[in-house]
Amino acid sequence: MATNQSTWHSFEDLRKAAESGDAASQRYLGICYQTGQGVALDYTEAVKWLRRASEQNDASAQCYLGVCYQAGLGVPQELGEAAKWFREAAEQGDPAAQFNLGVCYETGQGVTQNYAEAVKWYHAAAEQGEPQAQFNLGVFYETGQVVPQDYYEAVKWYSAAAEQEVAPAQCNLGLCYQTGRGVPKSDTDAVKWFCRAAKQGDKTAQHNLGLYYAKQEPRTTSDSEETSSEPA
After folding, report:
1. Is residue 67 within 8 Å of 82, Cβ to Cβ?
2. Is the same domain home to 122 and 173?
3. Which of 136, 92, 94, 142 minimizes the C-alpha distance to 117?
4. pTM here?
């Protein structure tokens, strides 16, 4: 039975569509149980419906099911099983799953640690606009780990993530402007990005901003003294 969210006039309609075998309805019902949206939070029930959709090759459901195994929600924590479902979804082009699989490879959770594979999946997700993948990819390019060090490429991905309000990306972009790595040196732009990250609670950005203003204070005091010494 084919259906979509526009035909769900009630939660009961959604359940009936899921029970009839519609993968999209099964996925959405699973998410409802996983998040407590319109129904009592029930991770076991969430896994039940996400698994049914996943077995029908629904990529988004596979990614959500991977998260359940990764965090031990409704099932025993099994990192290998989490990576398996992330891979199923990632290979279908799901950006969230591609990012999650990249993290698995970077950290060695559920798979053998492999930075080259991590970069591969971060790149796939980043190209689709996944902000955390864009940030992580930027770090790899800035540090030159696995990929050739390329500050211009790092700035490209930091900028993409920063515009999507990823605070660490905003902080790192500010540092790039402050040091002139990959962009023309600009204290104005550095402060702009430090401020945006600092407002989100990024402690490194707050620290960098404090250092910047501390350096400006002696200069301001000196200027004031010079002005006051001039004859009226």
Report:
1. yes
2. no
3. 136
4. 0.88
Is 40 within 8 Å of 53 (Cβ atoms)? Answer: no
**Tokens standing for residue 30:** 């699973």
SS3 163: coil
Helix (H, G, I), strand (E, B) or coil at 98: helix
Residue 16 lies in a domain: no
145 belongs to a structural domain: no
Per residue in 64-107, pLDDT tens? 999 999 999 999 999 999 999 999 999 999 999 999 999 999 99
Predicted confidence (pLDDT) per residue in 131-158, tens digit: 999 999 999 999 999 999 999 999 999 9
Q: What does the CA dihedral 103, 54, 34, 83 come to, rounded to 10 degrees?
A: -20
Which of helix, strand or coil describes residue 165?
A: coil
Do 123 and 172 belong to one domain? Answer: no
Please give the Cα distance from 95 to 141 (Å, whole number). 20
- The two tokens of residue 153 are 């490429």
Looking at residue 10, what is its pLDDT? Answer: 87
- What span, in angstroms and rounded, lies between the C-alpha atoms of 232 and 230? 6
